[in-house]
Amino acid sequence: LKEEALLSLAGIEGVYVPRFYERAERTTARVPEVVRKRTVDNLEEAPFPVSPLVPFLEAVHDRITVEIMRGCPNRCYFCQAGFATGPVRFRSAGRVLKLTEESYRNTGYDKISFCSLSTGDYPDLRELLTSLSPMCREKGLGVSLPSLRVDTDFLETLSLLGDLKKSGLTFAPEAGSERLRKVINKNIDMGKLKACVRAAYEKGWKKVKLYFMIGLPSETDEDVQAIVDLAREFSDLRRSAGMGPGRVSVSVGNFVPKSHTPFQWMGMDERGELSRKQALIRRGLREKRFELSFTDPSVSFLEAYLARGGRAAAEVVREAFSRGSRFDSWSEHFDFSKWEQAFARDPRASEEQVNRSRKGESLPWEHIHAGADLSALKKCVETLPEGLADFRNSVE
After folding, report:
1. What is the radius of gyration, based on Cα positions, of the chain?
2. What are the phi and psi torsion angles at 71 (to 5°)?
3. Pairing mode of beta strands 290-294, 247-254
4. Do the Cβ atoms of 173 and 212 come closer than 8 Å?
5. pLDDT tens digits, residue range 74-117?
6. How far apart are CA 178 and CA 190, in angstroms?
7. Which of 29, 144, 163, 384 has the fewest C-beta atoms under 10 angstroms from its C-beta?
8. Residue 93 in contact with residue 46, Cβ under 8 Å?
9. What is the per-residue burial (b if ≥16 Cβ within 10 Å, else e) of 176-185?
10. Taking the model in full, what pTM does it have?
11. Which residues does residue 25 pair with via DSSP β-bridges, in sequence order?
12. SS3 assignment for 63-95
């Protein structure tokens, strides 16, 4: 009975039953050859929690969060979410406004965040902010706009928020240099971005948050130094507007090659190399106007192992758990030595396994279709610049 039940479940689109697959090949013709994800076609009518639990203590994201769109039109080559969450779907401004009002009545939060992979690509953003402004002024609510896109409408968008609480503005250049942004397919007009940030300072904003990544394919020390230079420029833009320097929060993650992306065949920088690059940024941004945060390279190593591992990774997780690994997302609980001991369960769990490229190998997740098939990902690889010719040639 159990076997038949599992076979029936495996026949449902989007349901993956691992026991019927070995090395990315199905073991019975009664299950699909490729497992394809399920997609919510109509985001407008999709359920949304407007009565979330409100904790008695301050939480990290102590705010109303409303999803305004799903998917991302920008296909940055490192971003699993961009390739796996398509197609792009939107909620109407009227629907978002209704969800926001209901959430406010049920929670009392004084800050609103509109959640998406690329908020600036939401087509009704100006209409939404215009409709929301009276409520925000009356209730004293702040609005946070993450992942903004820079275009000709951006300054007008800022003007709509001009009388509201000044929450921080967040941008994700990802790389400091234009060359490296082209490598990862991150298209940003940096001239427009700087002009818009300067205008934001003039309208009352004091702080900007920037997201970067180090360890990206073909990265050099000049690219790392460009992160320092760009952060300084963003701070000095407030000086150019006749005020003191702007406060810039610089968040630096480590590149981890993820499945279902064009970079899934790449290796990750070694931990020592990532630590060295972090030190370069720390030395360049020592003043109090800069707030720095870095991801622990050991955490990224573990993330890369889990992202690239096959079934043997399950035994490693079980072993780490038995050794006391709990709440590892909190730095005070994370003990990498326990994971190092657990890696003995997987003979391929080594620096070489995480840090080497996969050079045309069969990947453990090839039988799972999460949004883009292998041929589409390989076409993205073909567009990489000549500096990555060796990598392009290795992906067959």
Report:
1. 23
2. 90, 170
3. parallel
4. yes
5. 889 999 999 999 899 999 999 999 999 999 999 999 899 888 98
6. 9
7. 29
8. no
9. bbebbbebbb
10. 0.88
11. 22
12. CEEEECEECCCCCCCCCHHHHHCCCCEECCHHH
